[in-house]
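Dear support,

I submitted the protein below through the web form. The confirmation email said the job was done, but the results page showed an empty box. After a refresh the structure appeared. I'm attaching both so you can tell me whether what I see now is the final result or a partial one.
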Amino acid sequence: MLLKKNLVLPALLLGSLGFASADVVQLKDQDAITGKILAEKPDNVVVDVGYTVLVVPRNVVTRISRTAEVALPAPAASNLLANVNAPQFYYSDTRPVTARDVRDLVKQIGEAVVQVRTPSGLGSGFFINADGYLITNFHVIEGETEISVEVYRQTDGQLDRETYKQVKIVAINKFHDLALLHIEDKNAPKFKFVTLGNADALTVGDSVFAIGSPMGLERTVTEGILSTKTRELEGELYLQTTAQINPGNSGGPLFNLAGDVVGVTNMKIMFGEGLGFAIPVELVKNFLDHRDAFAYSADNPNNPYRYLEPPGRTRHNPAEK
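What the results page shows now:
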């Protein structure tokens, strides 16, 4: 959709306000669009401007500032577009799902799914941004520091495997079985990544599919339906799916038919078929939003919390007796 310059006026008028009441998308030609950002995807930004919805290509966007980020004092509001720069750590889409063909989706997003290897085993994972940050399960890397990530790239219609060994553990949450990793190889390129969706919007019976490395068989695609959204296991709620989940799938994405991640696959019932489980993506977003609170510490590698030494016995002042 073409961007009309007459959409810029509402954005510029906000420059005189002490509090900008809408999101602002700054464009390369110094124009701007003001409205409510409905979704941010790798290729575009969807903005509701009140009377229509605009799909803005990423390659024309220079800055994005959201309402919560632009509550500025009145003197600073006039410099809003020049000073506010809010790069996204991950991308989220909560719009209603428009179903697409799984085969086409796998071609589009398959490169964002990786294999995570440690000396004791392997699992799966997926990139959440182009800078090499990826999600996997905590149990995949538990107790490990030697971690490698295998990435698959489409080249001339064929898949080429690249292995990265400079992998840092950024944050862990053992209670929700999540880990955030970062590829730190100096020559690493930009990576394909996925969009995080909305598990709350799923309905029982919706089609879903998983990509991972079950039993080491990399880039395996399995399809099924959502069996239930609220399966309680050991005090936590999981998505239950008939998509086949096996050892090696752990840490991989569960997608809806829009190609958005709705869960992180992490376990199955071994003595049954079609009984797989995934961590709802809302927990992943919460983990990423508060990643500093779950920062990994080499001094305490298997626990997201640092416990302080208990205080000694309180000494009373004799004068208080």
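Response: this is the final, complete result; the empty box was a page-load delay. The chain has three domains: 5-83, 102-183, 196-282.
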